[in-house]
Write a structure and sequence with these properties.
It is a single chain. The protein contains 10 helices and 12 strands. The longest helix is centred in the N-terminal third of the chain and has 28 residues. It starts with a helix and ends with a helix.
Length: 331
């Protein structure tokens, strides 16, 4: 075998070994608790980019439904999760209401077709007034989290907070869904105080360039806990490269950016002592099972969302190692 062929073979073998190493590390960290996010490690190979504008429009049209799905397919009842934190999202997409002494901070605005049903009509079911929604933090500028932001602006005068890059993303985003007016721009490490509660926002680019992850102090029967909400999980540049990949931002850029954010946020939550992990997708943080467990919880039993500081950190380890595996696959 010629020398160049041997070199190519060795490079391929080393690349596969690197992928296997990172996948094994992610699997070990995931254990039985973070199996959903471990799915990142089995992400499909990068699709070829869609280059022409017409082709990109066709790609988007192929993935968009002609109209809102039937309510029975997405509606979920609101749930009190902690003394000051409520789930007001859909079956697959989360929206979290933080109740303070001076109003409500909402995290994520789900879809435009579901925001009135889940939030405006859902909050009164759990004794909260939607007119008191002072802020909505949009974790990132995709329709499943930003779609209802304009409704909140128009109906309740809610301030919308997004990362600067994702305000720009919304301006470039097509589709007929209503976009909020540019309002407040999140700063890295920003402390958002409303009444007796302070949330801390961190810019964690990767899923999008303006993704926001948030630390939320919560209470359970008077006991203090700290929730870490990871603002964007999937490797979307693999599924829809036409919306991400450019000559100056190849796939390696997105993986490397994601890795840096996952490692940094893991350090932040370790220092802060977060013992709860939250997401904006109900499968990612195990909310589907945890909400059901919460409904069946008896007095004195452990809270299903309180998983401990070490487990919260390993959630980010899984995301980190799966991203490293994805990066290694490019080589």
């Amino acid at each position: 075998m010629k020398a160049w062929a041997i070199a190519v073979l060795l490079l391929a073998q080393s690349g596969k070994e690197a992928v296997d190493t990172h996948v094994a590390a992610a699997k070990a960290a995931a254990g039985q608790e973070h199996t959903s996010i471990f799915g990142l490690c089995t992400a499909p190979a990068l699709a070829p980019p869609v280059t022409s504008a017409a082709a990109q429009r066709g790609q988007r049209a192929a993935t968009q439904q002609p109209g809102p799905p039937d309510r029975s397919q997405w509606h979920s009842e609101p749930v009190k999760v902690f003394d000051n934190l409520y789930f007001v999202g859909m079956t697959e997409y989360s929206s979290w209401a933080v109740n303070t002494s001076d109003g409500i901070i909402l995290i994520d605005a789900i879809y435009d077709y579901s925001i009135e049903d889940e939030v405006a009509k859902g909050l009164p079911k759990i004794g909260l007034d939607p007119n008191k929604i002072k802020y909505v933090i949009v974790s990132h500028g995709h329709i499943d989290h930003a779609g209802g932001a304009k409704f909140l602006q128009d109906r309740f005068g809610t301030h919308v907070i997004m990362g600067a890059a994702d305000w720009d993303l919304l301006e470039r985003t097509g589709g007929a869904w209503p976009k909020p007016k540019r309002d407040m721009t999140a700063a890295d490490g920003q402390r958002l105080t409303l009444g007796d509660t302070t949330l801390t926002l961190y810019l964690t680019p990767g899923h999008t360039l303006g993704t926001i992850s948030t630390l939320i102090p919560v209470k359970d029967g008077g006991r203090q806990h700290l929730a870490a909400l990871w603002g964007g999980t999937g490797f979307n540049w693999i599924r829809t490269p036409g919306s991400y990949i450019t000559p100056d931002r190849p796939p390696s850029f997105w993986f490397e950016t994601y890795i840096k954010s996952a490692e940094r946020f893991r350090e932040i939550i370790a220092k802060a002592g977060a013992d709860i992990i939250l997401s904006n997708h109900t499968n990612t943080d195990g909310s589907k099972a945890k909400l059901q467990a919460l409904a069946n919880r008896k007095p004195g039993e452990p809270h299903p969302y309180v998983i401990g500081a070490e487990s919260v950190q390993t959630f980010l380890t899984v995301a980190d190692e799966c991203a490293k595996a994805g990066l290694a696959r490019l080589n």
